[in-house]
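In the laboratory, one determines a bound structure by crystallizing the protein with its ligand and collecting diffraction data. In a computational setting the workflow is compressed into a single prediction: the sequence and the ligand go in, and a structural description comes out. We illustrate the idea with FE2/S2 (inorganic) cluster.
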Amino acid sequence: MNTTPSHFPLNAWYAAAYDVEVGRSLLARTICNQKMVLYRQTGGAVAALEDACWHRLLPLSMGRLEGDEVVCGYHGLVYNAEGRCTHMPSQETLNPSACVRVFPVLEKHRFIWVWPGDPALADPALVPDLHWNHDPAWAADGKMIRVQCDYRLVVDNLMDLTHEAFVHGSSIGNRAVAEAPFVATHGERTAVVTRWMEGIEAPPFWAGQIQQARGYSGPVDRWQIIRFEAPCTVAIDVGVAPAGSGAPQGDRSQGVNGFVLNTITPETGNTCLYFWAFARNYCLEEQRLTHQLREGVASIFREDELVLEAQQRAIEEHPDHKFYNLNIDAGAMWARRLIDRMVESERGGSPSTVIPIRRAS
Ligand code: FES
Ligand SMILES: [Fe+2]
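The predicted complex, in C-alpha cell form:
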C-alpha cells in the first residue's frame, strides 16, 4: 500500500458506489485507505461496516448476507447493521467488545455516500450537490471507473478544460476552448471557472446535439461553467445556443444544456474511484440518446484515463519535480487550496503553510 501522506480529508461525504451497485450481496470498497463492506438491508437502507472481522480479521466481504446481518466466512460470527456481533458459534455469552466499526452512510443523487471520518460530524447537509442526476427536468446516466492516480489529478483535469483541444480533439474539443478567456472565482468550499466562447463553430459533439434537439446548424455561443465543491466534486454546466440568441445574458431557451457530474473518491493515495454522469435538459424521453451519451462520454473519459495514469506514473518517477502553474491552472490551484485547507484543519495545522503555489507571472 501507498505510504506517502494522504491528501484527502476524512471528514467529508464520499461516493462509495452508484445506487444500483449496492444490493443484496456484499460489496467491498476502499475509501480513503479504509476498507469497508456495503450491503442493502431488506428494508432498502444501506449499511457500511468495516471490512474486517473482530475475531481474526477476515474481510467480512468474504462472508455472506443473512437477512440484515453479515455472517463471517471464517468461523461464523454474525454482525448486525450497527456492527454489533449478535451470534458466536458454540457459546451463549457474547463478548461485549465484539463489534466492528460502522460508517455513516446515506443515499442521495443516485449515489451511496459514506463518511470515513468522525461520525459526530457527518452532517447530511454536506452531501455535494449533484441533483441533476435524478431531477425529472433532466435525463442522466453515468458510470464509475477505477483510475490508477491520485484523485487530485482528476480534479485538476476537470478544472481546466483547455485539455479538450488536445486530449479530446475528435469529439468535444476545438481550438476555441484553448483560446477563450475565462474567469476563476472561489468561495469557502467552492471554486468556479467560467468560460464563454461566442460566435464559434460548434465542435462535432455539440453540433450534433443542437441539430437533433433544435434543428439548428450554424455558429453558436458555447459555455463551460465548472463548479468545484471541496474536496472532490465537480459539476460542469456545458452547452451551446445559436450565436446571438442571448445565452451569455441568461436566455438559454434556444440552446441545449448538459451537466457533466463528477465526484472522485480517493481509494488510496494513488488510486481513485471516478464516478461521473452526463445529464441533459433536451429530448428527455429518448432513452436511446441517454444510452448513446453515456457510452460516448465513457469513450471520451477513456482518453482522460490514459493521460491521468501516465501522469501518475511520471510523478512517481520524478518525486521531487515541482509543478509550475500557468494561467490555465487557476481553477485547479484554487481547488487544491481548498482541499489543503480541509486536510490541514483536520490535522490541526495552519492552512497557510501547505504546498506553496507558485503563480505564473
Ligand atoms: S475471523 Fe470472522 S469469525 Fe473468525
Ligand atoms: Fe477530459
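The longest strand covers residues 256-268. Keep in mind that any predicted model is a hypothesis to be tested, not a measurement.
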